[in-house]
From TrEMBL:
GO terms for biological process: methylation. This is SAM-dependent methyltransferase. The keyword Transferase applies. Residues 21-82 form the Methyltransferase putative zinc binding domain.
Length: 431
């Protein structure tokens, strides 16, 4: 190694050592997994951009030994990510149904009505708040992506285009707005300044108000090898242990927690003001204790995760190589963020996947970042009749298989890449 290379390596190691935790400020010295270099997962390309330079950033995930927050450095700013966002929540039928059930349950649990006020942070295209409208509960969505917010307004959901934090919370309170319910579904991971975000929640919340936050559970991510859910748009990954410390830091407390099947295994936490009358459910202490038993306070637990990701990469590539060597055809289903992490980490391009399809018209005619796989409408599968269909949004595999069961007519099989390669033959399921 020459002197210049040694100096570069030394500078990179110093930079890693000098990274501070975005929640508690401690020096970050431990790694969960290094997935190499990857472009931002929602940076889909148009045809005339394929010959242009793409920006790649490290996917080296770090762990805080003090508050256990799993995190990426902020390589890409939220303003860049959400200037024009490609993800519309309403294109997942099961996610909309999940959100409708939540609205009905929380309205009953909190006794919400015409005198209440519910606010959703990162409200996307109104997929959730639309279900409060027939229940007579006044709502407001806060969504930074203007293109997505327009879809919500068209549904009749009042939406404010802005980023949430202390600044906006103070502005809303000055306007006489305080919330009985604050909702944050899969937004906490996308906030680089956690302390500003949670401080804003504290300001906006009424004294007896409730906050519910949903996010993928780091315990499940590690147990089930969900390394592809790591991408630059997700700055942080949470355990209940971390949420408990984060809440206390801002005068909030955990009062309940539910384990959900969504996104490969999520938590829904309920927070209230520290001095409120809300009692704390036994589920909080039980899950905190379980996380400790499973080693989430031990850095050695996190350090062992990298091997799982490497093994999954080898297994998937070995399968794809063997299938292509047999002369079989493969396409993808979906173009989600997690899929782009998988494709780039495993270097899966059009040498393996002829194309992928997606229900979101915004992505049609575009190409996946990095690997440049063309994205087509769903009916492209019926036209091409591939032998194998790689399900990239594997968390929706049941929904997708149900929608696409007709592919069995020409003998197509589904491939699920996570936690390790699984081939689903519909003809065998029917026996």
């Amino acid at each position: 190694m020459n002197i210049q290379a040694v100096e570069i390596a030394r500078d990179q190691n110093t930079a890693r050592r000098n990274v501070s935790c975005r929640l508690c400020g401690s020096r970050l010295r431990h790694s969960l997994v290094d997935l190499g270099m990857s472009p931002p997962c929602e940076s889909f390309l148009q045809a005339d951009q394929l010959d242009q330079m793409e920006l790649y950033y490290p996917l080296n995930v770090l762990v805080c030994e003090r508050c256990y927050l799993v995190q990426l450095k902020e390589y890409v700013s939220p303003e860049t990510i959400f200037n024009e966002y490609a993800y519309f929540s309403s294109f997942s039928t099961s996610w909309v149904a999940h959100s409708k059930a939540y609205c009905e349950a929380i309205t009953k649990r909190l006794g919400l009505g015409a005198d209440s006020f519910a606010v959703e942070l990162a409200s996307n295209d109104g997929y959730l708040l639309q279900h409060f409208l027939p229940l007579g509960v006044p709502v407001l969505g806060i969504e930074p992506a203007a293109n997505v917010a327009r879809a919500a307004v068209e549904k009749g959901v009042p939406t404010r285009v802005d980023f949430f934090g202390v600044r906006l919370a103070l502005q809303m309170v000055a306007e006489g707005l305080r919330a009985d319910l604050i909702i944050g579904n899969n937004v906490l991971a996308q906030v680089p300044d956690l302390n500003d975000f949670v401080a804003g929640i504290k300001i906006l919340l009424k004294p007896e108000g409730v906050v519910t936050l949903e996010f993928p559970h780091i315990e499940r991510l590690m147990m089930e090898n969900q390394f592809d859910t790591i991408y630059h748009e997700h700055f942080s990954y949470f355990s209940l242990l971390t949420i408990d410390l984060m809440a206390a830091r801002h005068g909030l407390r955990l009062i309940d927690v539910e384990e959900l099947p969504t996104h490969g295994g999520s938590l829904r936490v309920y927070l209230a003001n520290e001095g409120s009358s809300w009692a704390t459910d036994d589920s909080v202490a039980e899950l905190l204790e379980r996380e400790k038993r499973h080693g989430l306070t031990e850095m050695s637990t996190y350090a062992s995760f990298g091997y799982k990701a490497q093994r999954a990469k080898r297994d998937l590539l070995a399968f794809l190589v063997s299938v292509k060597n047999e002369g079989k055809t493969i396409c993808g289903y979906g173009a989600p963020g997690k899929g782009n992490t998988l494709l780039n980490y495993c270097a899966i391009g059009t040498d393996f996947l002829d194309f992928t399809v997606d229900r979101n018209p915004y992505k049609h005619g575009r190409f996946t970042p990095g690997m440049h796989i063309p994205i087509k409408p769903i009916d492209a599968i019926d036209q091409a009749k591939p032998d194998y269909i790689l399900i990239l949004p594997w968390n929706l595999k049941d929904e997708i298989i149900q929608q696409m069961h007709h592919v069995a007519a020409w003998g197509a099989k589904f491939v699920v890449p996570i936690p390790f390669v699984t081939v689903i033959d519909l003809s065998e399921l029917r026996r």
